[in-house]
Amino acid sequence: MSRIYCDLDQVKRLLRSGGTREAKVRFSDGYRDLKSDEGNTGGISLSGVTFDDAWAGHEDFTFEFTDSTSFDVVGNVVGSLGSGTIQASFTSANRFTIPSSNWSGVAEIGDKWYISSVSDISNDDGDAFIEDNTKRINAKLEKVFGSLSSIDFYTTPSISIPDAVEFACIRYTAYDIWNSIYSGQIPPGESSPVEIWKTAADEVMDNYTYGHGSGPRWRSRDSLVTEMGVEGVGDGIIEIDNLTDSANKDYLR
Q: What residue spans define the domains of the chain?
């Protein structure tokens, strides 16, 4: 695949602003309640956690200190995730990383910090949806242009993606992602509340291909100028006979 027609940040923007209030889509970095335990007696502080692009899940993580610098990590779903120290970066594979610079202060034994992940879909899966919808758009373009190799923005990275193609990629992808998560909550017989995204993408692509596509259907035959010729210039490659017409004896058919 030569080009990708939109990026994940563009899709996230639409998903944040659209859909329904009760059904937002949160990606790998979605979390809430980064907080210390009310019973802490030390001065340890955590400024943030960096979630992996492969991570998706709803889980509460606890960091409990076993001395002034060392801590154990536990997830309420997966259980123990090992131990770390504030003097080095801690990584739980495919989940998150805490750089040592995100810790400050000194802990007392038993001090705790918490963070709750609320990720519905990983960033990696979001990128995969974009790739799928780029292929979807390519199929539409190929149907009209005949070959993707004839499309300059497909073959040449320095040429900007047309606004219409980018617009469609964002909306097709957001539509697919939202429905992959919440389709089970749509009442029977009702359409998706984000159906408007797909409809808008279809309309924009139809308008774009109508205005730009030459279409393989015209490539199977010579132009009408070649076949019929031009009066005063030259004959074409087909002959047109004078046929008798009841209203006009000289009418050419």
A: 8-22+123-218, 31-119
Q: Are 63 and 73 in contact (CB under 8 A)?
A: yes
The CA distance from 190 to 114, in Å, is: 40
pTM over cut 0.90: no
3 state SS of 205: helix
Q: Which two tokens stand for residue 214?
A: 């030459």
Q: What is the pLDDT of residue 239?
A: 58
Of the candidates 52, 20, 14, the residue with the CA atom closest to the CA atom of residue 167: 14
Integer Cα distance of 117 and 84 in angstroms: 19
- 195-239 pLDDT, tens digit each: 999 999 999 999 999 877 654 444 444 455 555 565 666 666 555
From CA 96, how far away is CA 55, in angstroms rounded?
A: 8
d(Cα 49, Cα 186) in Å, to the nearest integer? Answer: 34
CA distances from 186 to 106, 121, 175 (A): 50, 19, 14
> Chain centroid to CA 175: how far?
9
Q: What is the pLDDT of residue 17?
A: 83
Q: What residue type is assigned to position 33 of the chain? A: D
